[in-house]
């Protein structure tokens, strides 16, 4: 039976929004808001993998579980792999779900959607995407495009991820959202892989998995969760919480 451990990687360093995980959103640190939404997804225990004692203590002060990880990890995937080893050394959970620490308004159903493609045995990694409806963002390289094909099981199979506008021609474009459900064995394989040529060229970590032949399937969700990267984003997140 598949069991899932949800891990939220958090690092204190951020250039555009200093001490971002601890930014207050209506009385609680942002990392705690993300933790609450991950708990509401109700797919397994949730923990924060952090690199700073202030984050660790903030999570614990609000009744959450946190684990200290190394400060030199290059990516969230590396951090959650270490955290999974610390939190679950006996590997009781065979899926590790990585939720970004800067999406305090992510819907629980969006988190669950990243998990559902793993119902197909051949899928190594599940993730999510949403249709780009604003033409302003179709050519924006900050909106990563998922190039996919339907898999016949209600999701899509990822063929490529790119910052370019793709595919060409008539039809929808999809924005990829970086929340990943890894089979535990796939996560172990992934973090051991060397950085790949397309990963380096596009600056997209998930291409390392595709280049190595790992299958990634994608669920479609209704809209992208607001991520918080700047003081202006933080004010919008605060305003959104006040109206909920």
Explain what the structure shows:
With 244 residues, the protein is α/β, with parallel strands linked by helices. 31% of the residues lie in helices and 24% in strands. The strands form 2 sheets. Strands 5-4-1-6-10-7-11-9-8 form a 9-stranded mixed sheet, with helices on both faces. Helix 1 packs across helix 4. The chain is globular. The mean pLDDT is 95.
Keywords:
single chain; 244 residues; alpha/beta; 9-stranded mixed β-sheet; two-stranded antiparallel ribbon; 8 helices; globular
Q: Roughly how many Å is the radius of gyration? A: 17 Å
Unreliable spans: none
Beginning-to-end CA distance, first to last residue: 36 Å
Determine the fraction of residues in helical runs and give it as a percent range.
25-40%
Please describe the biggest sheet, giving its number of strands, its sense, and whether it closes into a barrel. Answer: 9 strands, mixed
Report mean pLDDT, rounded to a whole number: 95
Structural class: alpha/beta
Shape field: globular
Please report which band the strand proportion falls in: under 5%, 5-15%, 15-25%, 25-35%, 35-45% or over 45%. Answer: 15-25%
- The multimeric state of the shown protein is single chain
| Count of DSSP-assigned helices | 8
Q: List the secondary-structure elements in sequence, H or E.
A: EEEHEHEHEHEEEEHHHEH
Q: How do the strands line up in the largest sheet? A: 5-4-1-6-10-7-11-9-8
Total strands: the figure is: 11
Question: How are the SSEs placed, and which strands pair?
Answer:
Layout: E1 4-10, E2 24-25, E3 28-29, H1 30-41, E4 46-50, H2 53-61, E5 66-68, H3 76-87, E6 95-98, H4 108-115, E7 125-131, E8 145-150, E9 156-162, E10 174-183, H5 184-192, H6 197-202, H7 206-211, E11 216-220, H8 231-243
Parallel strand pairs: 1-4, 1-6, 4-5, 7-11
Antiparallel strand pairs: 2-3, 6-10, 7-10, 8-9, 9-11
Helix pairs in contact: 1-4
């Amino acid at each position: 039976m598949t069991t899932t451990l949800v891990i939220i990687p958090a690092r204190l360093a951020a250039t555009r929004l200093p001490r971002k995980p601890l930014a207050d959103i209506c009385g609680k640190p942002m990392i705690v808001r993300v933790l609450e939404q991950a708990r509401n997804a109700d797919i397994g225990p949730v923990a924060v993998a952090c690199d700073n004692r202030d984050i660790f203590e903030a999570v614990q002060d609000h009744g959450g579980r946190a684990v200290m990880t190394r400060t030199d990890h290059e990516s969230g995937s590396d951090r959650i792999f270490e955290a999974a080893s610390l939190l679950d050394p006996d590997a009781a959970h065979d899926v590790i779900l990585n939720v970004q620490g800067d999406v305090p308004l992510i819907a629980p159903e969006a988190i669950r959607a990243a998990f559902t493609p793993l119902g197909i045995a051949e899928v190594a990694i599940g993730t999510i995407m949403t249709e780009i409806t604003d033409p302003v963002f179709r050519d924006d390289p900050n909106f990563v495009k998922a190039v996919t094909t339907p898999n016949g099981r209600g999701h899509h199979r990822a063929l490529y991820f790119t910052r370019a506008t793709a595919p060409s021609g008539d039809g929808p474009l999809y924005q990829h959202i970086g929340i990943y459900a890894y089979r535990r064995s796939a996560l172990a394989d992934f973090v051991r892989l060397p950085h790949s040529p397309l990963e380096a060229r596009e600056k997209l970590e998930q291409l390392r998995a595709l280049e190595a032949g790992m299958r990634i399937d994608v669920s479609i969700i209704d809209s992208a969760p607001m991520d918080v990267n700047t003081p202006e984003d933080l004010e919008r997140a605060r305003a959104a919480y006040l109206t909920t």
